[in-house]
């Protein structure tokens, strides 16, 4: 029964990774950029959520929606200011810029606000113990899981059923051709950043409600792990990011449960390196070759 | 090897990407000293075939041998050292390196001085580097590129870049030279010069050349024999005159002019 | 002709650096410099070693490694174990730091250098983190609370290690082996097609780079009184990356200049770490947008002094040759 408890913890954690990983994978799919700042959008989301709950006195869902709106705009601003001028630059230049943006958000945030952590108030979501088949489950976990699943379903709908989703898929397949077909590539890229950032913001709020403690550098490690999750599932592939996130969350929880919690952070990176070496296109990816 | 083994023997070679057979069942034999053309419509698999020969792709069927020795699954750099060298359709020079350094890179596998000798600057380093330098200067003179010696490769005019790429491929001392659309993007005058260059290298170096080209005048003008590839399969082979009149070739090129 | 002139240039720069060494040594022995400045100078030397070692991997060979602090950590811990736990002399500790880091570089490089671009970057970042977590979990070296190290680093040691690093990497770069590495940076497929064993040279560059990062680690460890895994997180890796990028990918003197400048900036902003990071990050972003080639591009400082010569002929990037 302990195992099931751990599995549920793992799934909750994994769904947070999955939400962040979606943004990574969508952005990578469309502009081939590892958006290092994505983890910091997650952090900003956690703080926006915190302030909307404590200062604006919002309840969970309005706070979640407000956060998603704010982080979506934030994501678009980052893209327009820092990444757009580099659309045709080398991959390395883009990667370095992304690192720079990430550091700027982290330390700019500390510079203006200070580094002190905050704690989400308890009772944002009901925390009753529900007993299912003899396993007691925190109702919060269920809330979180449902919220993540609903967001992912909405995302699937947006990507597959709407015009903007179609444009996103077209641009990620071949930006030049999409442009010739009359798709506004710039707007599509911005929309991708907006959606990805909104999901990261949502993940931030969920993280805050679940783990309570938030601080300005909290985005680094979950950000990197979410990237690992995206690579695990096959970068650029949306269902891959979901599965990758959940898988990583579960593996980490099991490692902690087995008594190696100090090694927990290493697990993600070991998984990453094994995947990169043995299955570089990820669980769901197709092998792509460089054209010679 | 006995002289009657062909220099290059491609036996039923092919490659499959997922479900797509990009090249299949190709049989090619090249004798020493031949200049052979490889033509075919866009997307016929010509460059893929070059990639098979040079080890960039590993054939999923058949075999490729050079001088009777199988090359299957060898790394590209080993195949180059065994004697197959190439140019690329979209020029791939080392653009930040100088013209002479581009050639020296091709000499690298012949270098006798070790990493340690270079780090500690023992005499072997200097003699090795000097020898390489002198050889490269002489080599560039053949191609009339010595005047650009210290220019960065990226600063050369387009035609000269093509020329340098061919020179670099030759510096690797190949037995078989693969030229992938050397005349692409050239004006008629540059193409004329290229034809002269190809004639020159055949005369100067003991070489077999396989040439992919869209410029039919060039192919028909210089090649001894021609292979025609369409949809990944060989559809014809023969002398330029035979190819010109082959109905299958005309069909494959339907709409395109075979002059 | 050229050989005389350039050899003159070479010995001139050696002479200048010895004079620089003597001046600083004089100022330190005469106690004209306080501890703050001495420490800044030590850091400058250590950061130059780090910058130049990463320059070989990223700037010359084009392999985007962003976990360099991992090798710094391996060198620091290995040397500290040699000097503190085994009680062996400091010079031996320095060398062991380098060697152990080089072995780590070999072990990490062989699997990960098969990856390209972004994937390599993220894998090396992962390795850097794994190294840190491993040290965190080894009780023998103190785990999270760290390892006590005596202060043994002196100016002569910093200077000698820095000069050796600069010379070795310069000599390697200006040889057929260095050209092989540059050809990989420029176009790996073409390098392969020219008969370059690309995997071999990527690993060689990685191992040499790791070796010197380990040497820097030895000096770094013995300059503090304690080393902790938290000193070697990826922020440290980014610091080193910034030297190389700012200086110009492919320019050794650029990396040196950037390391000196940024060491000065960060020393003066020591008490304001956030301000420092804000400045660093804005610098990076603005640089990438407006001058992605860095301060120097791929050029070296020396090329500003001999612009004319390169037109006349002679290999300009190996000035030890005669022209035939």
Can you give a write-up of this model?
The complex is a heterotrimer of chains A (292), B (259) and C (324). With 292 residues, chain A is mainly α. Chain A has one domain: ABC transporter involved in vitamin B12 uptake, BtuC. Chain A is 72% helix and 4% strand. In chain A, a hairpin with a 2-residue loop joins strand 2 and strand 3 (135-138). The longest helix of chain A is centred in the first third of the chain and has 30 residues, at 2-31. Chain A is globular, with a radius of gyration of 19 Å. In chain B, the strands form 2 sheets. A 6-stranded mixed β-sheet of chain B has the order 6-7-8-3-9-10, with helices on both faces. Helices cover 38% and strands 23% of the residues of chain B. Chain B has helices at residues 46-53, 76-82, 99-107, 115-119, 123-142, 158-171, 188-204, 216-222, 240-244, 247-252; strands at residues 8-17, 20-30, 35-39, 61-66, 69-70, 84-86, 176-180, 208-212, 225-230, 233-238. Chain C has a domain at 39-231. Chain C has a two-stranded antiparallel ribbon. The radius of gyration of chain C is 20 Å and the shape is globular. In chain C, helix 2 (35-60) packs parallel to helix 6, helix 2 (35-60) runs antiparallel to helix 11 (252-268) and helix 10 packs across helix 11 (252-268). The chains are: A mainly alpha (292), B alpha/beta (259), C mainly alpha (324). The interface between B and C is large, with 46 and 40 residues. Chain A: The chain crosses the membrane at residues 6-26, 59-78, 90-112, 132-159, 189-211, 266-285. Chain A: It comes from Peribacillus cavernae. Chain A: Keywords: Amino-acid transport, Cell inner membrane, Cell membrane, Membrane, Transmembrane, Transmembrane helix, Transport.
Keywords:
heterotrimer; A: about 290 residues; mainly alpha; ABC transporter involved in vitamin B12 uptake, BtuC; two-stranded antiparallel sheet; 11 helices; C: about 325 residues; about 70% helix; disordered C terminus
* CATH topological fold name of the largest domain in chain B: Rossmann fold
Strand % of chain B is 15-25%
Largest interface: B-C, 46 and 40 residues
* SSE succession of chain B: EEEHEEHEHHHHEHEHEEHH
- By secondary-structure content and strand pairing, the structural class of chain C works out as mainly alpha
Shape type of chain B: globular
The N- and C-terminal alpha carbons of chain B lie at a distance of: 40 Å
Tell me the number of structural domains of chain B. 2
The overall strand count of chain B is: 10
Helix content of chain C: over 70%
Corresponding CATH architecture of the largest domain in chain B: 3-Layer(aba) Sandwich
Cα gyration radius of chain B (Å)? 19 Å
Helix content of chain B: 25-40%
| Number of contiguous helices of chain B | 10
Major sheet characteristics of chain C: 2 strands, antiparallel
Largest β sheet strand count, sense and barrel closure of chain B: 6 strands, mixed
* CATH class call of the largest domain in chain B: Alpha Beta
Number of helices of chain C: 13
CATH superfamily annotation of the largest domain in chain B: P-loop containing nucleotide triphosphate hydrolases
Domain ABC transporter (chain B): 8-256
GO molecular function (chain B): ATP binding; ATP hydrolysis activity; L-isoleucine transmembrane transporter activity; L-phenylalanine transmembrane transporter activity; L-valine transmembrane transporter activity
Keywords (chain B): ATP-binding, Nucleotide-binding, Transport
Pfam families (chain B): ABC_tran (PF00005), BCA_ABC_TP_C (PF12399)
